[in-house]
Amino acid sequence: MKVFMLGWEFPPFISGGLGTACHGLTKALSNLGVHITFVLPKSVDTGNATHVHMLTPQSCRPLPAAGTSSVEISEELKNIQFHTVSSPLQPYMTPQQYQKKLEEIIKQKKLLSGQSQQMLDQWLEREFETVTAAAGQYSGDMYAESHRYAAAAVHLALLQDFDVIHAHDWMTYPAGIAVAAVTGKPLVVHVHSTEFDRSGEHVNQMIYDIERRGVHAANKVIAVSYLTRNILLTRYGILGDKVEVIYNGVEAEDSSRISAHQVGIRSDEKIVLFLGRITMQKGPEYFLMAARKVLEEIENVKFVMAGSGDMMHRIIEMAAQMGIGHKVLFTGFLRGEDVNKVYQMADLYVMPSVSEPFGIAPLEALNHDVPVLISKQSGVAEVLTHVLKVDFWDIQEMANKIIAVLKYPPLQMTLREHGNFEVRKLKWSGAAQKCLRLYQDMAAQVAT
C-alpha cells in the first residue's frame, strides 16, 4: 500500500499535537510496510531560498537546490519519503514581531510586584532563547499559502505512484482535493481539530468553509473522537457512515523521575502541570482559578504552565493580579527532552480544555506515571477510565480533585498504576492498523 500524505507539521517542525500525531501514525504505518510520501510545508528564508535544510526527526541534512526537496530518513521511518515545499509561511508572529511583543511586556513589568517581576524575568529569559519556536501557529495570508501548498502538492503527486491520499487538518484539505481531482485517487481527510474547537462560536468563516469542502469532498473522514464526529455531523452536515473514529495513541517513554530542585522547586513542594497551548481552547484561566483555590488549602505547591500562545501575556497578568505569581512557573514552549523532564517532575497533570477533540498530552502524562485530571469536554475522556474528570468550568470541583491527589498518596498511587496500565493499550500500532484497513477498503472500491 502506498499513501500520499499531506501534513502541516512533523517533528521537529511542530506547534502542538498535530506534529506528534503525524509522527506516531507514520512510524506505525511504516512498521506495517506502508510506503508513505509525506509532503510538508517548511518556512525558509526567502533571501536564502536556493537551498532547503530538512531537519528530520533524527538528523539535519542539507538538500539540493529546488522548489521542493525530498530525503530518506531514519530506520524507524524507513518506508517514508519526505518532501518539503518552499513557503514563506510564518508563525502567528515572526520572530521579530514576537521579540517586539516581549519588549512591550518588559515595559509593563514595573507595574508588577517584586515576586511577579522575578517570575516574569524567568519566563522572558526563556522566551528570548526560543523566540523562533514560541509563537506556535501561523499568520500571513493562510488562504493563499494553503493553496500555494496545494499547487506544489499536485506537482509532486504527478511524479509519484500511490493508492490513497491522506490529508491532515484544514490547511492541507485544498491540496487533498486538488490531488484527488487530478489523479482520481481516493481521499481521506483526518480531522484532528475543527474551527469550533479552536474558536468556539466565533468561527473564522474562511477556515470553516475550507473544512466543510474538505470533509464533503473526501471519500472517508477520520475523526479523532466521537466528540469530533458529532461536531462533523451536526455542524458540517456530513453523513455518519462517512466518518470513522480512530483514536490517537502514544509511544512508550522512560518513566523514571528526576529531582525538581534542579529547576528551583523545593523538594517538599508538589508540582501540578499544565502543558499545552496557552489559548482559549485549552482553558488556562480555569487552571489558574483552580490553582488559587488549591493554594488556600495547601501551601507547598507549584503550578507549572508549559507552553505558549496568544493568551500568554494575559495569563501572566492574571497570575500576578491573583497574588499567586510566585506559585506559578511559566516555562514557554517546550519540545523534546524538556517535555519528558517536566512530566517526570509532575505530581499531577491537569488538562482543563474547553473543547479538546482528543488530547495526546494526557496519554503522555500517564506514560510517565503521572496521575491525570482532564475535562469532560475532551475526546480522550472517551477512552480513559483511570483518570479524574471534571467539567472545565467547575473550578471548585477541579480544585477539590487536585487537593485530593496531592493530600492522599494512596489515591495518587492508584491513579499512577492503573493509568499507566491502561495507556499501554492505546498505541499508535492500533491506529495504524485501522488506517490501513480503511486505505485497503477505499482502494478496493476504486478498483471495482
What do you see in this structure?
It is a single chain. The protein has 16 helices and 16 strands. With 448 residues, the chain is of the alpha/beta class. It has two domains: 2-91 and 138-248 and 429-447, Glycogen Phosphorylase B (Rossmann fold), CATH 3.40.50.2000; 101-133 and 251-423, Rossmann fold, CATH 3.40.50.2000. An eight-stranded mixed sheet has the order 5-6-2-1-7-8-9-10. A six-stranded parallel sheet has the order 13-12-11-14-15-16, sandwiched between helices. A two-stranded antiparallel ribbon has the order 3-4. A hairpin with a 4-residue loop joins strand 3 (53-55) and strand 4. The longest helix has 20 residues, at 428-447. The radius of gyration is 22 Å and the shape is elongated. Mean pLDDT is 81; it is low at 43-68, 89-95 and 126-140.
CATH class of the largest domain: Alpha Beta
Quaternary organisation of the protein chains: single chain
Shape by Cα distribution: elongated
CATH level-four homologous superfamily name of the largest domain? Glycogen Phosphorylase B
CATH topology of the largest domain: Rossmann fold
Instruction: Give the strand order of the largest sheet, numbering strands 1, 2, ... along the chain.
Output: 5-6-2-1-7-8-9-10
Architecture (CATH level 2) name of the largest domain: 3-Layer(aba) Sandwich
Poorly predicted runs of 5 or more residues: 43-68, 89-95, 126-140
The separation of the N and C termini measures: 17 Å
Give helix % range.
40-55%
Q: Averaging pLDDT over every residue, what do you get?
A: 81
In terms of structural class, how would the helical and strand content be classed? alpha/beta
Helix run count: 16
